[in-house]
UniProtKB/TrEMBL annotation:
Residues 565-735 form the Helicase C-terminal domain. Component of the replication restart primosome. InterPro entries: DEAD/DEAH_box_helicase_dom (IPR011545), Helicase_ATP-bd (IPR014001), Helicase_C-like (IPR001650), P-loop_NTPase (IPR027417), PriA (IPR005259), PriA_3primeBD (IPR041222), PriA_3primeBD_sf (IPR042115), PriA_C (IPR041236). It comes from Imperialibacter roseus. Zn(2+) 2 binds at C539, C542, C557, C560. Residues 194-221 form a coiled coil. Zn(2+) 1 binds at C530, C533, C570, C573. This is Replication restart protein PriA. Its cofactor is Zn(2+). The gene is priA. The lineage of its organism: Bacteria, Pseudomonadati, Bacteroidota, Cytophagia, Cytophagales. The keyword Isomerase applies.
C-alpha cells in the first residue's frame, strides 16, 4: 500500500501538500523531518513532514518526495502546534511561519549548474562557436558539470549570462539546479596512532628502535604518548589529539607527514562545536536579600494557581538575581528554560552574568550569530546540550521538547514585535502561547509593564508581584527638568545642550563618574533645509526627508536605504545656504567632543553596532571605565547595568510624547523611566536631567515620582474612553501598490465589502498612514477595533481573510498587496 506524507512548505499558501513516499524513503519518513520535494514546474523546496498516512487524496497528481534530509526530526510536535496557532492568530499562512522559524542554515538553496547536452554534436556544421564557447565545451568534456563561477574563471568573462544563453540556444548545454545544504559543521583535523599499535607493546618497541636515529619523528611519537599514555591507548587513541595543538610546540609538520605515509599515525576529521566542548562547572548562585527571597516565594505561590506572573520591579531592584534562581531550579529538575530579551545589545551583558553561574549550559540565539552558529544552537536544544537559551524574539521558534519556564525580560518593549515580513507576531504573546503548549510557567518582568500586561495582572488573569525598592536600598535617582524655551530665549544654549545639563556632565566627569545621554534619533541631523527657498531633500522612494550622516558625508533614508552625496548647493534654487535642522546621536557626539575636549565620548546606535562584536566591545569598554560619556538611542535604555553611571540626560523627548499614536505617552514614560534607571545603581547620587519645551506635561511629574500606578490609572481611563487595547483587539489592514489611485480604490472596495457585516463603528479609514509611500509603494490602511466579548474575534478574522481572498480574485485589485497586522504596536 502506497504511503503518503502531508508536507508543510515555506510558501504563502494556506494548506499542506501531499506527496508520495517511495519505498526508498519510507523508513525515514517521519513527522518533523525535512524533505526535498518538487513544487510547480521547476522549483524544488525544503519542507517539513507533518504526518504520514496511507490515504491517497482525491484528484491526486503523482508527486514523490525526492529525499529525506534528516536522520532525526528537527521540528518537534510542539513547534508544529505553535506554527498553526501563529498562522491562525496573526492571519498569515503556516508556510510563512515555517519560513521565519527555520534558521537559514536549515533551508536548502539551489545553485545553477551547466552540463553538456546529450545530443550535442560540435561537428554538425549548423553553428559556429567563439573561443570562449569552445573553452566551455572542452571543459565539459573533462568535467560532468560546471558552476557559473567556474565558467567565468575558465573563460575570463565576468558577465557570462550572454555566453550561457548562446550555448543553450545552440543546443550545446543544459542548465539545471543543484541543491546545496547551507549548514556546514565545524571540523577539526586530528591525529592518532594507527589502531594496530593501540594494544601491541612489542610493535611500539619495534617502532622506537626503527626511529632511533630519526629524532624529529621519534619526538613526535614520544609527544603523543605523553599526552595519551600507553596504558590508556586503547580507550583514548580513537579520540586522538588536535593536529594544531599537537604541532604547536614547533614539532615538524613534514615528519608527521612521513609518519602518516609510513602507517604510524593517521589523520582524520572530527566534527566539533563552534561553542567549544561542554565543561563541568560548579554553579555559583548569587545570594538573595530577604526581600528578594520573599518575592521569589510569592512567585512560586502564584505559579501554583496561574501559569503567568508579572514581576513589576523598579529599575535596579535585582530582578535578574531572581531570574537566575528560577533558572537554576529548572536545571535541577532536568528541564529547559527560555530567557527572552528585546535587544541583542542586552544579551552581551546579561550573558556574562549568567555564564558565571551556568557556564556552557546556555545557548545564545539571535540574528548577529552566523547561520552555522544558529543551527548549532538549534541542534543543541534538540540534543539537550543547551537546557537554557537566551535570545531575542526568534528564540520562540526553537525545538524545545521539555520547556518548563519562560522568562520575558523587559516585557513592555516594542522590539518584541515583528513588523516585516509575515508572521507579524509579538514574541511576548507568542511565548505565552508557547508556554501553554508546553504547560510551562511564564514570568514577565519589567519596571514599566505594558498597559495590557498590567491590566491582566490587576484583573487577576496573571499573578502580580511587586518589587518596589532598589537592590541594597539604593535610592531612585533625582530627576530635574530644564525648560528649553526659557534657555533659548536667554540665548544660553550650547548647540543642543542646555547650560544646566552641560554643567552637570562636567561635574560628573570631574568626580570620575560616567554619563549616558539618550537621543532617540540616529544620524547627524534629521534633514537639511535651504534658507532661501525652504527646500528639503526628500527620498526618491519614500515620503520622508533624508537624514544627514556626517561621517559618511551623505544623505540617507532610514526606511529604504536610498542615499545620495551631501549637496553643496540647493537642488531646487541653486543656493549655497544649506543648513542642518535638528540633531541626532552623531551630531550630539560631535558637539560633545568640542565642548568636552578631554572627555572620552562614544556613540551606541544602529550605525556603530552593525556586528555582534561591536555591541559587546562598546558595552565592555563602558563597563571598564574607558568611556566617560555614552550617547545612544533607545538600545541604551533597556536593562543595561553599569556601576559608575551617575548622570543620565534625556534629550528631544517631546517628539516621542507628541507622536500621533495612542501609545505615545506610554512609550515616552517607559523610555524615560528605563533610561533614568541606568543612573545611580550603586549609590544614592544618581541624577536625571530631562530637556523639554513643555515641562508642565503630566507625564514628566509621573517620571520624577516614579509613579507607575498613577500613570497606569490615567492611561487605562483614556484607553477605555476611546476604545483602545486592552479593551479591544486591533487589526490593521495595510494596502500597498505603486499606483496611488489603485491602492486607494482597492482599500475603499475592501471597506465596502466588510462594512455592513462588521459595522462602521468598528472601522477607521481607509486613510494614508503617517508615511504614505515607502520603497515606491503607496500605502492606505484600515484599522479595525474588535471589542472583547461583543464579537467572536476568530470568526471576524476568518471573515476578513475571506473578503481579502475575494478581493484578490479580481485581476485589477490583485495587483495590490494586502497585509494584516494583528495587535499593531
Amino acid at each position: 500500500m502506497a504511503s503518503f506524507a502531508d508536507i508543510l512548505l515555506p510558501v504563502p499558501i494556506p494548506r499542506l501538500f501531499t506527496y508520495e513516499v517511495t519505498a526508498e524513503h519510507v523508513d525515514k519518513a517521519e513527522a518533523g523531518r525535512r524533505v526535498i520535494v518538487p513544487f510547480g514546474q521547476k522549483k524544488v523546496l525544503t519542507g517539513v513532514i507533518v504526518q504520514t498516512h496511507g490515504t491517497k487524496p482525491e484528484n491526486y497528481e503523482a508527486r514523490e518526495i525526492l529525499d529525506v534530509l534528516d536522520d532525526q526530526p528537527v521540528i518537534v510536535d510542539q513547534q508544529l502546534q505553535l506554527i498553526q496557532w501563529m498562522a491562525s492568530y496573526y492571519m498569515c499562512t503556516p508556510g510563512e511561519v515555517l519560513n521565519a522559524a527555520l534558521p537559514s542554515g536549515l533551508k536548502l538553496s539551489s545553485k545553477s549548474m551547466v552540463q553538456k547536452h546529450p545530443d550535442f554534436d560540435p561537428d554538425d556544421g549548423n553553428h559556429t562557436y567563439s573561443d570562449s564557447e569552445w573553452k566551455v565545451v572542452e571543459a565539459l568534456e573533462e568535467k560532468e558539470h560546471l558552476s557559473y563561477d567556474e565558467i567565468s574563471q575558465i573563460t575570463g568573462v565576468k558577465n557570462i549570462y550572454h555566453l550561457i544563453k548562446s550555448l543553450s540556444a545552440k543546443g550545446a548545454i543544459l542548465i539545471f539546479e543543484q541543491l546545496i545544504e547551507k549548514y556546514k559543521p565545524k571540523k577539526e583535523r586530528r591525529v592518532r596512532l594507527q589502531a594496530s599499535l593501540e594494544n601491541d607493546l612489542l610493535a611500539l618497541e619495534a617502532l622506537f628502535q626503527k626511529l632511533e636515529k630519526k629524532e624529529k619523528q621519534l619526538e613526535l611519537v614520544m609527544k603523543y604518548l605523553r599526552e595519551v599514555p600507553v596504558n590508556e591507548l586503547k580507550e583514548r587513541n580513537q579520540l586522538g589529539l588536535s593536529k594544531g595543538e599537537f604541532l604547536s610546540t614547533g614539532l615538524s609538520t613534514s615528519s608527521l607527514g612521513t609518519l602518516v605515509k609510513n602507517g604510524v599515525f593517521e589523520e582524520f576529521d572530527k566534527v566539533i562545536s563552534r561553542f567549544g566542548e561542554p565543561k563541568k562547572k560548579e554553579a555559583v548562585i548569587p545570594e538573595l536579600t530577604s526581600l528578594q527571597e520573599e518575592k521569589l516565594s510569592e512567585i512560586h505561590g502564584l505559579f501554583e494557581k496561574k501559569s503567568t506572573v508579572l514581576l513589576h520591579g523598579v529599575t535596579g531592584s535585582g530582578k535578574t538575581e531572581i531570574y537566575i534562581r528560577l533558572l537554576q531550579q529548572v536545571l535541577d529538575e532536568g528541564a529547559q528554560a527560555l530567557y527572552l530579551l528585546p535587544e541583542i545589545a542586552l544579551t552581551a551583558q546579561i550573558l556574562r552574568r549568567l555564564k558565571k553561574v551556568f557556564g556552557d549550559k546556555i545557548g545564545i540565539y539571535h540574528s548577529k550569530y552566523s547561520d552555522n552558529e544558529r543551527v548549532e544552537v538549534w541542534n543543541g536544544v534538540l540534543s539537550g546540550r543547551f537546557p537554557i537559551v537566551v535570545g531575542v524574539r526568534s528564540s520562540v521558534f526553537l525545538p524545545f521538547n521539555n520547556l518548563s519556564l519562560i522568562i520575558i525580560d523587559e516585557e513592555h518593549e516594542s522590539s518584541y514585535k515583528q513588523y516585516d515580513p509575515a508572521p507579524r507576531y509579538h514574541a511576548r504573546d507568542t511565548a505565552i502561547m508557547l508556554g501553554q503548549i508546553h504547560h510551562a510557567k511564564i514570568l514577565l518582568g519589567s519596571a514599566t509593564p505594558s498597559v495590557e500586561s498590567y491590566y491582566n495582572a490587576v484583573y487577576e488573569k496573571y499573578g502580580l508581584v511587586a518589587l518596589e525598592t532598589r537592590f541594597g536600598e539604593v535610592q531612585m535617582p533625582e530627576t530635574a527638568l530644564i525648560d528649553l524655551k526659557d534657555e533659548r530665549k536667554k540665548k544660553r544654549m550650547h548647540g543642543d545642550l542646555s547650560p544646566g545639563l552641560l554643567q552637570a556632565i562636567e561635574q560628573t566627569l570631574e568626580e570620575n563618574k560616567q554619563v549616558i545621554l539618550f537621543q532617540n534619533r540616529r544620524g547627524y541631523a534629521p534633514y537639511l533645509h535651504c534658507e532661501d527657498c525652504a527646500h528639503i531633500p526628500k527620498c526618491a522612494n519614500c515620503s520622508v526627508s533624508l537624514t544627514y550622516h556626517m561621517y559618511r558625508q551623505e544623505l540617507l533614508c532610514h526606511y529604504c536605504g536610498f542615499r545620495e552625496p551631501l549637496p553643496s548647493h540647493c537642488e531646487a534654487c541653486g543656493s549655497a545656504k544649506i543648513k542642518t535642522i535638528g540633531f541626532g546621536t552623531e551630531k550630539l557626539e560631535d558637539d560633545l567632543k568640542v565642548l568636552l575636549p578631554t572627555g572620552r565620548i562614544s556613540r551606541m546606535d544602529y550605525d556603530t553596532t552593525r556586528t555582534r562584536s561591536t555591541y559587546e566591545q562598546l558595552i565592555e569598554n563602558f563597563e571598564n571605565g574607558e568611556i566617560d560619556v555614552l550617547v545612544g538611542t533607545q538600545m541604551i535604555t533597556k536593562g543595561l547595568d553599569f556601576d559608575h553611571v551617575e548622570l543620565v540626560g534625556i534629550l528631544d523627548i517631546d517628539r516621542i510624547i507628541h507622536f500621533p499614536d495612542f501609545r505615545s505617552h506610554e512609550r515616552a514614560f517607559q523610555m524615560m523611566t528605563q533610561v533614568s534607571g541606568r543612573a545611580g545603581r550603586r549609590s544614592n547620587n544618581g541624577k536625571v536631567i530631562i530637556q523639554t519645551n513643555n515641562p508642565e506635561q503630566p507625564v514628566f511629574h509621573l517620571v520624577r515620582t516614579n509613579d507607575y500606578k498613577r500613570f497606569y490609572q490615567m492611561e487605562i481611563l483614556e484607553r477605555e474612553s476611546f476604545h483602545y487595547p486592552p479593551f479591544v483587539r486591533m487589526i490593521r489592514v495595510l494596502f500597498r501598490n505603486q499606483d496611488k489611485q489603485l491602492v486607494w480604490e482597492t482599500a475603499n472596495h475592501y471597506l465596502k465589502s466588510i462594512q455592513t457585516s462588521l459595522g462602521g463603528h468598528r472601522i477607521l479609514g481607509p486613510q494614508e498612514p503617517l508615511i504614505a509611500r515607502i520603497r515606491n509603494q503607496y500605502h492606505q490602511e484600515i484599522t479595525i477595533k474588535l471589542e472583547k466579548g461583543g464579537i467572536s474575534i476568530p470568526k471576524a478574522k476568518e471573515f476578513l481573510t475571506q473578503k481579502m481572498e475575494e478581493l484578490q480574485q479580481d485581476k485589477i485589485f490583485r495587483q495590490t498587496s494586502v497585509i494584516f497586522d494583528v495587535d499593531p504596536q
